[in-house]
Amino acid sequence: MAVDGVLGKKIGMTQIFREDGRLVGVTAVQAGPCTITQIRLPEKDKYTAVQLGFHEVRNLRSPEKGHLRKIGRLYRHLREVPAGDLTGVEVGDPVGAEIFSEGEYIDAIGTSKGRGFTGGIKRHNFSGGPKTHGQSDRHRAPGSIGSGTYPGRIWKGTRMAGHYGAERVTVRNLEVVRVDASRNLVFVKGAIPGPSNGLVILRRTNKAG
Fold first, then answer.
1. How far apart are CA 164 and CA 123, in angstroms?
2. pLDDT exceeds 80 at position 1
3. Where does residue 141 fall: left (phi above 0), alpha (psi -120 to 50 degrees), or beta otherwise?
4. pTM to 2 decimals?
5. pLDDT of 72-110, one tens digit each?
6. Closest-CA residue to 103 (of 191, 200, 188)
7. 3-state SS of 114-174?
8. Residue 56, SS3?
9. How far is CA 99 from the centre of its chain?
10. Distance CA 108, CA 46 (A)
11. Least confident of 88-92, 126-130, 142-146, 199-203
12. In whole angstroms, how far apart are CA 23 and each of 15, 20, 31, 137, 160?
């Protein structure tokens, strides 16, 4: 199938022995089963992609029900993934872990864990203030955030304390160590963003090497 990505659920990390005996840390992802809910074609949409549905549910809001009426099933998550030649691909076709093979490289996209309101040291790796020469309570302070004369205000984008995490993160060029198509499991080398049971998008990378 020419679909280049799949939706899945992050299960957690484990270890796998390679054929040469080396032990490698991997993240297990339940990749699918997904269903093609919409097809994007160049003649109509100016690009080629498919929309996948993942995590079947019993009820949704009315507009989402209408969108999925032709499928006959309701899905919690709908995302578009790239696709190549869509000859023979139809709405309702299943997509799972079988689209990947061992040894190829993929990108993993997820939502990072939310850390709430954090300071500059944790959020931006600031070094903090001096701990000697009369300084008493500046160990984790951000320091100067601008001068008073010019510009007389704080520049937009200045790194300061604030909400940390809970944002879209893409990790590129991760190796697929093992694929278990019968259980829709993909074992990816290294860590991928997000908590356990979080939504993950796996797609073929175009920058491997």
1. 6
2. no
3. beta
4. 0.84
5. 889 999 999 988 888 788 888 899 899 999 989 999 999
6. 188
7. CCEEECHHHHHCCCCCCCCCCCCCCCCCCCCCCCCCCCCCCCCCCCCCEEECCCEEEEEEE
8. strand
9. 18
10. 25
11. 88-92
12. 7, 9, 23, 46, 40
CB 29 within 8 A of CB 185: yes
Q: What is the mean pLDDT of the chain?
A: 91
* Cis amide bond preceding 42, omega within 30: no
Euclidean distance between CA atoms 2 and 40, whole angstroms: 13
pLDDT band at residue 208 under the 50/70/90 scheme? low
Which helix (H) or strand (E) segment holds residue 22: the answer is: none
Q: Residue 10's closest CA among 169, 165, 206, 163?
A: 169
Note if the bond before 142 is cis, omega within 30 degrees.
no
